[in-house]
Specification:
single chain, alpha/beta, Rossmann fold, 42% helix
């Protein structure tokens, strides 16, 4: 697929993943339509960065995916849709499960319906989550797509429902939908909070010498994936849509990039020459003690695997964070 003249709609396009995806597709020759309601901290700064760097290759639309009636005009004439918009934190879903449902589940159905009615052939890529697998108690191996889903927390339920709707629209409506179950993405333009985007949260906090709270014992393991590698997968999935249509892929850094929280904190301390300060608190609802993605299916089907090792990616994230902190 030649990218020259192609157009992509990116929902949540001013968020951390959205701004990285927009830049990636623009550099490939696409025109990016960035749709975002700018509700998350940092999105206005990310949008300004995109407008400053790519003013002629992007269009901004301020809209909310919960507003289904407004979406049809924005999906028309797009060559692909990357659906990243969402409520992103388990903790927030526990405080306000209704909004979590409306944004993640209803918002995704709204997007699917807009594409089904107005642009049914467009590839539709959905950013799902490893949280659809639940707590994975007693698990210590890399997670494959065959692992039974087991939603835990309102966030797991809302993203899991959306995940299954996206999959089923390929089966029932013959749409070109793909589900990517993502794990622990980090990178530039990520501001991070205690509830979501924890690698960036650790980096910004340590640089500012703010104390951290570690929930659990700090030995939780995750496989960490640089956003630049994820964006390569986004474009690959779209380019090879005849193969990826209707598929689900587990997407993370894989076993080579697995770390526990304490290891990441110590590494940030070494790279920044700042001694981290942290205390411990109780485990949070739905937290997985161990999650590492088996990325073999993406490698086998698409020839994709992470190229940015976590050690280098973390150095790049710290370098970027120093420019804004």
């Amino acid at each position: 697929m030649s990218a020259a003249g192609l157009r992509i709609l990116i929902t949540g396009g001013a968020g951390f993943l959205g701004v990285n995806a927009a830049e990636h597709f623009i550099e490939l020759g696409w025109h990016a339509t960035v749709l975002d309601n700018l509700s998350r901290a940092g999105t206005e700064r990310n949008l300004k960065w995109l407008l400053d760097h790519h003013p002629d290759r992007m269009t901004f639309v301020k809209e909310d995916v919960r507003n289904g009636a407004a979406l049809s005009d924005h999906v028309k004439n797009q060559d692909a849709v990357l659906h990243l918009a969402g409520q992103v934190a388990v903790t927030t879903s526990l405080v306000d499960p209704v909004t979590d449902f409306e944004v993640n589940a209803l918002g995704t159905v709204n997007m699917l319906e807009a594409v089904r009615v107005h642009n049914p052939q467009a590839p539709f890529v959905f950013a799902s989550t490893n949280k659809v697998y639940g707590k994975l108690e007693h698990n210590n191996g890399a997670c494959r797509e065959q692992q039974p889903i087991d939603f835990h927390s309102p966030y797991g339920c809302s993203k899991g429902a959306a995940d299954q709707y996206v999959r089923d629209y390929a089966r029932c409506f013959h749409m070109n939908t793909v589900v990517l179950r993502q794990s622990c993405i980090y990178g530039a333009h990520q501001y991070g909070t205690e509830d979501q985007g924890w690698v960036a949260h650790f980096v910004h906090s340590i640089l500012k010498r703010r104390p951290l709270t570690i929930y659990g014992d700090g030995t939780q393991v995750r496989d960490l994936l640089d956003a630049r590698d994820l964006c390569v997968l986004y474009s690959t999935v779209i380019e090879k849509i005849e193969k990826t249509r209707g598929e689900i892929y587990n997407v993370g850094g894989g076993p080579d990039n697995q770390r526990n929280l304490i290891e990441v904190i110590d590494h940030i301390g070494q790279l920044t020459a700042v001694k981290p300060s942290y205390t411990f608190a109780g485990w949070r609802e739905g937290d997985q003690a161990y999650y590492v993605s088996d990325i073999g299916k993406a490698k086998s089907d698409l020839g994709w695997e992470p190229r940015v090792h976590f050690d280098r990616g973390l150095e790049d994230l710290i370098r970027w964070a120093r420019t804004i902190d």
